[in-house]
Specification:
Elements: H1 2-38, H2 41-44, H3 59-65, H4 68-100, H5 107-119, H6 124-133, H7 141-144, H8 151-162, H9 166-174, H10 179-190, H11 192-208, H12 211-216, H13 225-241, H14 243-253, H15 259-275, H16 278-281, H17 285-293
Domain ABC transmembrane type-1: 74-281
Subcellular location: Cell membrane
Organism: Paenibacillus pabuli
Length: 296
């Protein structure tokens, strides 16, 4: 008995130690980026800025928010996230519902068809040619339509729906409900945990997307925030090679902005909004992913 209790305590200590270590490894780099973005360039060049800013300033953020390209990129990203994520969840759910019905004709064949698309694709060039043939290049629709369906998330939602009691659907049909009524008024409310989880993952995907904006759009009005951030990081990468001379000049001019602080501030502007969404949907994660991932 005593040995079992001692072993349990040792196990808990090891688990907590690993969790704390993972937290520090993931959180400290993010925190350091925030600290550097709030520190003046004149002080940053001296080094030793890790856990808190020595010379607190918001000049880097002011410089970022004055940039019309960044503000436009933020608007495009917010718009594609607010439109694309709910539409994607709706399409995924509407496909998962019939595939979860055991009386669907050719159910196994349809499931294999969609699973096949997870492993095989035509590649980037055929994909670009399809988008061009559909007149989607350099349009806002290129952010929404190609990403409406995610087969992996569809399988999770479908498995979740398969675990719902069939008696609920049968009683609804007895009362005269059709498939649309059952889907919108019964199935979707019961699948809220998994839909919230999938919706958040899709929102994160839209928020962090940059390649489609980089490869399929030419107009500056259609560049997303992440694409603008990539541009900023590339622009200031060269500046980082001569950062020492720049810092000396900034020190003489009392300039609180440099290539490093601008890059850190731009990273925080692109990251913080989506991070702030997590606490509101965290309660759905465990239930949504575990119930949707295990087939009874």
């Amino acid at each position: 008995m005593i040995l079992n209790r001692f072993g349990d305590r040792i196990f808990k200590i090891i688990v907590y130690f690993i969790l704390i270590l993972v937290f520090l490894v993931t959180f400290l780099p993010f925190w350091n980026i925030l600290v550097l973005s709030l520190n003046s360039a004149e002080d940053t060049v001296r080094g030793g800025v890790y856990l808190w800013p020595r010379d607190l300033t918001l000049d880097s953020y002011q410089q970022i928010l004055k940039d019309s390209e960044i503000l436009n990129g933020l608007w495009v990203t917010v718009k594609r996230t607010l439109i694309g994520a709910p539409l994607s969840v709706l399409v995924i759910t509407m496909l998962a519902y019939p595939l979860s019905r055991r009386n669907l004709v050719g159910r196994k064949g349809w499931n294999l068809y969609f699973i096949f698309t997870m492993y095989f694709s035509g590649g980037l060039i055929p994909f670009y040619m399809v988008l061009k043939a559909l007149n989607m290049i350099d349009t806002f629709s290129v952010f929404i339509l190609p990403s409406l369906m995610n087969v992996f998330y569809m399988i999770i939602v479908r498995t979740f729906m398969e675990q719902l009691p069939h008696e609920i659907e049968e009683s609804a049909r007895v009362d005269g409900a059709n498939d649309l009524t059952i889907f919108f008024r019964i199935v979707m409310p019961l699948t809220t945990p998994v839909l919230a989880t999938v919706g958040l993952f899709q929102a994160i995907g839209h928020w962090n997307a940059w390649f489609d904006s980089y490869a399929f759009t030419y107009s500056s009005d259609l560049k997303t925030l992440q694409a603008v951030l990539v541009k900023i990081l590339n622009q200031f990468q060269t500046g980082g090679m001569i950062s020492q001379s720049q810092m000396l000049a900034n020190s003489a001019k009392r300039n609180a902005v440099s290539s490093d602080t601008i890059r850190m501030a731009a990273t925080m502007v692109a990251t913080l909004p989506i991070v702030m969404v997590y606490p509101f949907l965290q309660k759905y994660f465990v239930k949504g992913m575990t119930l949707g991932a295990v087939k009874s």
